[in-house]
Amino acid sequence: MTDNRDSIIQILDIDRTLAANVPFSPLSDGEIRVWFIPTDHPGLLKQTGVLSEDEQKKAAGYKNPSVKMCYEIGHTALRLLLARCQNTAPESLSFVYGPKGKPALSDSNGVHFNISHSGDWIALAVSQTPVGVDIEYARDTRKTDSIVRRFFHPQEAEHYRTLSPEEQRRFFYERWTAREAALKALGIGLTVEINEFLVERCPDRPLLRIAGGPPGSERLLLTGFDCPKGYVGCCAWFEGAAQKKM
Ligand SMILES: CC(C)(COP(=O)(O)OP(=O)(O)OC[C@H]1O[C@@H](n2cnc3c(N)ncnc32)[C@H](O)[C@@H]1OP(=O)(O)O)[C@@H](O)C(=O)NCCC(=O)NCCS
């Protein structure tokens, strides 16, 4: 895997990828593809009959109509994209869930994915090896001071205090999305004390890594990527995973 975020993360257009007349190039080693989908994507809303009975039940359980629509659009897009990756019908895919709820394809066949939603956007990341993605709508800094005090490593909290307000905002969202992406790559979610580990820059490459984190996190690499205006995103993957074919 090349240690350069631009050679790892490919941001692709959902409409172009799903267009029937555009050939789909197979995923390559070490590549992570990311698609942004608006939560009210009109074309995906019309794609009924793709979701499984369980997914339809889950969607129906959301009382808030916009949360329901976000779930339906995200999972419809996910099925359509994964079907293109596996060259199969979207409705034929089935999913399994990890102990803390991380979804994966029952028959992954070297296709892994992760979803994140925030505000008006859904991000889907797909890779040949396990991946975690997080996006956040980067609001102002009002509440970030207390979150940093509570949930960031003391070293990060100390650094945060030396920054200007704009730098604090950027630092906060970079490190927050990195924490979530790491925990999502591991599949454990927010079930650990996230202030006990440090998100830090790799000394030798323009990526982030985790120090003192839960088992497996020492092998994670992370990077931010370009997002729609006002949003911040991060992807996490396992170093050397491309070679090991996890
Ligand atoms: C995973 C988690 C960090 C998501 O955080 P979030 O910022 O609220 O949400 P995001 O939009 O970034 O991600 C949500 C997506 O992550 C995925 N996801 C769910 N659990 C996951 C996990 N353990 N690991 C990785 N991804 C997970 C799902 O696809 C979900 O989207 P969906 O419900 O539309 O399918 C959070 O839900 C969490 O900590 N979950 C585990 C909590 C837990 O232990 N629950 C008890 C189960 S025993």
Plain-language structure description:
This protein is α+β, with helices and mostly antiparallel strands. The protein has one domain (5-244): Ribosomal Protein L22, Chain A, CATH 3.90.470. Helix content is 35%, strand content 24%. The chain has 9 helices and 11 strands. The strands form 4 sheets. A 4-stranded mixed beta sheet has the order 1-2-6-5. It has a 3-stranded antiparallel beta sheet with strand order 7-11-10. The chain is globular. The two termini are 14 Å apart. Bound molecules: coenzyme A.
Which ligands occur here? coenzyme A
The chain-level mean pLDDT equals 92
Q: What is the chains' assembly state?
A: single chain
- The outline comes out as globular
Number of separate helices: 9
Care to give the gist of this entry?
The chain is of the alpha+beta class and 246 residues long.
Task: Spell out the blueprint of helices and strands.
Elements: H1 5-8, E1 9-12, H2 14-18, E2 32-38, H3 42-45, H4 53-60, H5 65-86, E3 95-97, E4 103-105, E5 112-118, E6 121-127, E7 131-137, H6 144-151, H7 154-161, H8 165-186, E8 198-201, E9 208-211, E10 220-225, E11 231-238, H9 241-244
Parallel strand pairs: 1-2
Antiparallel strand pairs: 2-6, 3-4, 5-6, 7-11, 8-9, 10-11
Bound molecules: coenzyme A.
Coenzyme A binds at residues 71, 74, 98, 100-103, 114-117, 134, 180, 183-184, 187, 189-191.
